[in-house]
């Protein structure tokens, strides 16, 4: 085994500079979180519906006040608070170096990208969790098409941004 | 979708969210830089996040829809996530993809990013609400004009 370690490492290190384990463990936990909600309540949780259902608290626009949004808006807030709490549990308690972490991505990219994410996920009926995790896990053709589409355009956009010399 | 009937409903949602957020933080998806590294082909680890998560939920969907009957806390019958396909699925996917590639952030990961103390992510969350509001406003207006 020891003889193979450098061989394996040299091949994989290029593709996985941070290793594979945190990704796999994290992914399994994301799936497990969705599974806990699904098995106990039958609800297929997505993260982006929260954007519209929460707007129904403050906006009279018809779309946000559809029955399924108003009826689910409370638990969606709880779901989101749970996500924040779980991430905080890792970042401030369980992580090897517990501390706050701040991104170097420019504010205008976060804001502009955020606007497009807000439009695109709601127009396309889901995001990385609804389509990407639950939809793909359901082998839904709609979700597979959506994921292939957003993956391709995200990769293209990120490569273009990098090529233009914008970093990180 | 169903009404909550059990006192355990909200706790179950919260615990599910907690584990979900823990996974987003451990995997690095709560950090836009990690996502951008994937999209720029510098680190393919994200494949294991989405893959690992989809396999786990896929198993749950399969077992629940074939062996189990109804969810204990709500009485909801188990179903797969199948949404109707239309043009918006592709158009939305394109717009979301460009936004994700520009910012390295998606909704669930953005909420998790707040949890790891990343305050600048509030720009992204404000943007998401703005975008969600804009499309809802326009679509409601269009629906009214059509009627």
UniProtKB/TrEMBL annotation, chain A:
Keywords noted in UniProt: Cell inner membrane, Cell membrane, Membrane, Transmembrane, Transmembrane helix, Transport
Keyword presence, Membrane: yes
Coiled coil: none
Membrane topology recorded in Swiss-Prot or TrEMBL: Multi-pass membrane protein
Subcellular location: Cell inner membrane
Transmembrane segments: 20-39, 75-95, 107-124, 144-166
InterPro entries for the chain: Sulf_transp_TsuA/YedE (IPR007272)
Primary location class: membrane
Entry GO terms, CC: plasma membrane
Protein name per the record: Sulphur transport domain-containing protein
Organism: Halarchaeum grantii
UniProtKB/TrEMBL annotation, chain B:
Keywords of the record: Membrane, Transmembrane, Transmembrane helix
Protein name as it appears in the record: Sulphur transport domain-containing protein
Entries under InterPro entries matching the protein: DUF6691
Ranges annotated as spanning the membrane: 7-26, 46-68, 89-114, 120-138
Database matches in Pfam families: DUF6691 (PF20398)
Coiled-coil ranges per UniProt: none
